[in-house]
Write a structure and sequence with these properties.
The structure is a single chain. The chain has 14 helices and 37 strands. The relative contact order is 0.09. It has three domains: about 220 residues, Distorted Sandwich (Beta-galactosidase, Chain A, domain 5), CATH 2.70.98; about 260 residues, Aldolase class I (TIM Barrel); about 70 residues, Immunoglobulin-like (Sandwich). By secondary structure, the protein is α+β, with helices and mostly antiparallel strands. Helix 11 links the parallel strand 30 and strand 31. It binds (2R,3S,4R,5S)-2-(hydroxymethyl)piperidine-3,4,5-triol. The site of (2R,3S,4R,5S)-2-(hydroxymethyl)piperidine-3,4,5-triol has 11 residues, from loops.
Length: about 675
């Protein structure tokens, strides 16, 4: 039994190795009493009941740690639930109505004491996992306006200090990891862009300021939502901290009608006592076992033609690239943008999802057949949510776009956003996607989304649009069980647990410079596993940054995720193509270790462990190189069996696990100059 309830209005969630204890305060408000190491039932019983703060003229009388903070009475911390009832009342006074337990799923049911309004708090735990999934359901029985409805509020135990880890960045610089002291007051992480965002990611970690990769307690949360979101962290003057978060952003409001059911996305939480590395490994395990639709499938080596040809797509160049990609060992060939309508630049054609007959005189069939003949699966780029004003679709349906009457449309990348909140628009998108996949035997869709939302017009559309995207993806997958989807939003602008529940991998960033990618991948890996981190090897100098990086280094960085190729193979020399084919073959050998193993981040590399195999990828970039004489700290693998011996699969050298972990791995990075790199394959024997 993973869930223990007790008579005195107390519930104990038991995860694999942690406990979470909820109790009702005297006024029925649900509060978190404990989130941390596992407690026995007896120990959980011994926790003091929620203690209301001493009320004073300016302080709260509510208990700290409420599971969903409301605005009733003297509650002054950021509310999770803000409602406006007719007449101006905004408070919710909890009245506990009962609970239900179904396996690892606990539902706590409440009503408001004054208004005909019900609230459910949901908790779900899975066998073998430490992640707790939480969400909220509102059931109004009279009209009400919702100003904020978070999925959950999370409180961490009182610590000596609080440090926040999160990501920020921008296009081609997403997933940049930040670690800063949590400011006293409120800190908001948010996206107001309609996608989960390049500028922030919907997850966070809190530690006392003393955690490292391998040591220290870490409390973390990740939101399963691919649209606008908001997480507000609070650090109180009396030394408490926590956060509340969910979908939507500041300033939106939604009117709910009687009988409606308002279900928030899941906001998952995880406590890990073994540092950031352990927190990441537990998140990876959760994503693999409880989020991804096809977790057990090895992610294929994809070739994507975007960086090779841009908008200059035609059947001949795609055939040639497909031929070269197959020889290099690619398993999926993806034709990117500009195969359809009048799309010869980003200025026209989005929305007209018919093959461009100038470029593909006989349609897509011959190319698809050729790719299949070459032994690869065929993937196709689509951007279903968007339209160029210069398109037949827009000319026929100018009212289908998100817009605010009376305001001009804001064009970004020359495109507008279709309003998927309108059923006929979402149906149109589903229909052409369904037909396209069915008619052409499309194996993989790269689903892109290349602009932020503006002039949304109605606040509900921020939510409804995302739900419609989810629903289309879910239907496509149900109708075409072989179909796989890569999520993309101008790179990694839609990376979150919501999109990962219906896609197979994420296009991590439009920045494919291996030097920059190291940091991008480090941020990405905090929560998301290697198998979903699409990483292409592209040309040198890199088309975006102009940086020249050796092929081997580019491969060794990309091999840390789901390796792909994205360069203009037609311009690679025979030697480069041969080396690429060799390295792709090596990747296929280590793929189970990288994609299904556990990740250990090292100071200048990463390590994966799977069964008896260990893979270390080490990169010596300019930062590690320094001036002559700069010592290179030995790279000490982690997580090995100290009593085991490990054979280097390439050199045959035999190492003791304990020695490797203390003295470090012998690596030949010394004389390699800038961008020396190494791949070490070890097997326990
Ligand atoms: C943005 C994506 O991130 C790129 O990989 C590429 O698909 C372009 N869009 C195509 O317009």
């Amino acid at each position: 039994m993973r869930l223990v309830t007790s008579a005195d209005r107390r519930w104990v969630l038991r995860t694999l190795s942690t406990s979470y204890v909820i109790a009702l305060a005297g006024d029925d408000a649900p509060c978190c009493l404990h989130w941390g190491p596992a407690l026995t039932a007896e120990q959980a019983e011994a926790l003091s009941a929620p203690a209301a703060a001493a009320g004073s003229s300016f302080d709260s009388v509510a208990a700290w740690g409420e599971e969903l903070r409301t605005e009733a009475g003297a509650r002054f911390e950021t509310p999770s639930l803000q409602l406006a009832f007719p007449g101006g009342d905004r408070g919710i006074d909890w009245r506990y109505e009962g609970h239900a337990v179904d396996g690892g799923h606990l539902t706590l049911r409440f009503a408001d004491r004054r208004h005909p309004f019900r609230i459910e708090l949901h908790y779900r735990v899975h066998a073998g996992s430490d992640v707790i999934e939480r969400w909220t359901v509102l059931r109004p029985e009279a009209p009400v306006t919702v100003l904020r409805c978070d999925s959950a509020a999370w409180s961490v135990p009182q610590l000596g200090g609080y440090r926040l880890s999160h990501v920020s960045g921008g296009w081609s610089a997403e997933h940049a990891l930040r670690r800063t002291e949590l400011a006293a007051g409120e800190t908001t992480l948010t996206s107001r862009r309609g996608v989960s965002g390049h500028h922030a990611g919907p997850w966070l970690m809190i530690d006392a300021g003393d955690a490292t990769e391998q040591h220290g307690e870490v409390w973390s949360g990740a939101l399963a939502w691919s649209g606008s979101w908001r997480i507000t962290l609070v650090r109180t003057p009396d030394g408490r901290a926590g956060w509340t978060g969910g979908f939507g952003h500041e300033g939106l409001s939604w009117r709910l009608e009687p009988g409606e059911e308002w279900v928030t996305p899941v906001f998952a939480g995880l406590y890990a006592p073994g540092g950031f590395g352990e927190a990441s490994r537990r998140w990876h395990d959760h994503v693999a076992r409880h989020v991804l639709p096809a977790p057990a499938e090895p992610r294929p080596v994809v070739y994507n033609a975007w960086e090779a040809v841009g908008f200059d797509v035609n059947e001949a160049n795609q055939r040639e690239l497909a031929r070269l990609a197959a020889r290099a060992g690619a398993e999926v060939f993806v034709m990117d943008d500009a195969w359809f309508g009048g799309r010869t630049s980003d200025g026209a054609g989005l929305g007209d999802w018919r093959p461009n007959r100038d470029r593909f005189p006989d349609g897509l069939g011959p190319l698809v057949d050729e790719v299949h003949r070459l032994g690869m699966r065929f993937g196709l780029w689509v951007e279903p949510e968007m339209v160029n004003p210069d398109s037949d679709l827009y000319r026929a349906h100018p009212d289908w776009v998100l817009h605010t009457p009376g305001r001009p449309h804001t064009l970004l990348r020359n495109q507008l956003v279709l309003n998927f909140g309108r059923p006929e628009v979402a149906d149109w998108a589903h229909k052409w996607l369904h037909e396209l996949v069915g008619e052409h035997g499309i194996d993989v869709l790269k689903w892109d989304c290349n602009r932020a939302f503006t002039e949304v017009g109605q606040d509900r559309l921020w939510i409804d649009h995302v739900r419609a995207v989810y629903s289309i993806m879910d239907r496509l997958r149900a109708d075409h069980p072989h179909l796989r989807i890569e999520a993309c939003a101008g790179g990694g602008g839609r990376t979150d647990l919501g999109i990962l529940a219906r896609t197979d991998q994420v296009w991590t960033s439009d920045n494919t410079d291996a030097h920059d990618r190291i940091a991008i991948q480090r941020g990405f890996s905090q929560v998301y596993p290697a198998r979903v981190m699409a990483a292409w090897v592209t040309d040198s100098p890199n088309p975006l940054t102009g940086r020249a990086v050796p092929l081997r280094f580019r491969f060794h960085v990309a091999m840390a995720g789901a390796l792909g190729l994205g360069g203009d193979l037609a311009r690679w020399s025979p030697q480069e193509l041969a080396e690429a084919a060799e390295l792709v073959a090596v990747y296929k050998d280590i793929r189970p270790v990288v994609q299904f193993g556990t990740l250990w981040r090292l100071p200048y590399g990463v390590q994966y462990v799977h069964d008896d195999r260990v893979v270390v990828l080490a990169w010596r970039g300019p930062a590690e190189l320094g001036p002559y004489g700069t010592p290179l700290v030995p790279l000490r693998p982690a997580g090995l069996d100290p009593h085991a011996r490990y054979r280097d699969e390439d050199t045959g050298a035999l190492h003791h696990g304990a020695v490797l972990m203390s003295a470090g791995l012998p690596l030949d990075l010394g004389g390699g100059g800038d961008y020396a790199s190494a791949l070490v394959r070890l097997r326990a024997c």
